[in-house]
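Support reply, case 0932

Customer input (verbatim):
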Amino acid sequence: MGSAVYFSHPACLEHETTGEHPERPARISAIECSLAERGWLGYEVRQAPPASREMLVAVHSAEYVDSVRSMSESGGGAFDQENIVSERSYDAAAHASGAACAMAEALLAEGPARVGFCATRPPGHHARADSTSGFCLFNHVAVASRHALDSLGARRVFIFDWDVHHGDGTNDIFRATDTVLFASIHQSGLFPGTGRITDAGARAGEGYSINLPVQKGSYEDAWFSLLEHIVIPAAEQYQPDLVLISAGYDAHRADEHGGCELEASSFAEMARHIRGLGERTGAPVGAVLEGGYALDALGASVCATMEALAGDRPPDSVAPDFFTSRAASHIGFHWRL
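Our regenerated output:
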């Protein structure tokens, strides 16, 4: 796959939440301690630039971007009890979006990097155009996708979200366009309560949202089956120029914020499937950290993902299960699965 790049920034440690809030600076420390022990897995480590205001307002309303900045610069506050802003939160979120944009540039414009990972916080996939949600301020994957489409020559971007929670912000931002194919496997019944299988997008984007909820307690075979037999075939037909992963790790069995039974090796296997997609379509692959709050599991899972993305081991194959066959009947009309 060529060289691999890793982006982070110290500002992401300075986004302060309160009390026992699960989205805490120790998440990044756990990841980077694990990576340091493994020699950074051969990735080139780069410091992320901040996203410009222009990059942010290409996705978010100017009023919303300014409200996050104003709250930060005034010393912090809270949009609600889950979405906390401290004095450095705007800087952290801007660098997190900037990391995703810089990774897209490294993958599309610079060469020869073919894979990348951004370990940044706060996460982004719940942030909508004009509102914060689910610990997220700016939607980093969406900002990077828009940057790739507007400034880096990409015509189509594929986003795969494997966080245990549905990426409602990303889904909503790109709901009505066919320039982004969004696919999500997530646990049914969890926050934010969106992502039903019948949600396939709207207007020009009808058929370009693939939502695949799984049941609480689902093991990796359910995730692998949906990925291999629904997501990957649709994405191959789509022929993206860039592949981005919203890489949340709260579907790990050790994470109390989800209810699924994945292991670090499960995320590695999904990464191998996505890397293989990139190899077959000629699209580079980059991942952006979303959720994941069990620190040991998070560090191990990110390392497993990065190793798989930069490696050459092919994925294994699983037989489609009953739910996959039923799900295919819902979306196959567009992708002829």
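We compared this against your earlier run and they match. Two observations from our side: The longest helix spans residues 89-110. The chain has one domain: 4-335. Please reopen the case if you see a mismatch on your end.
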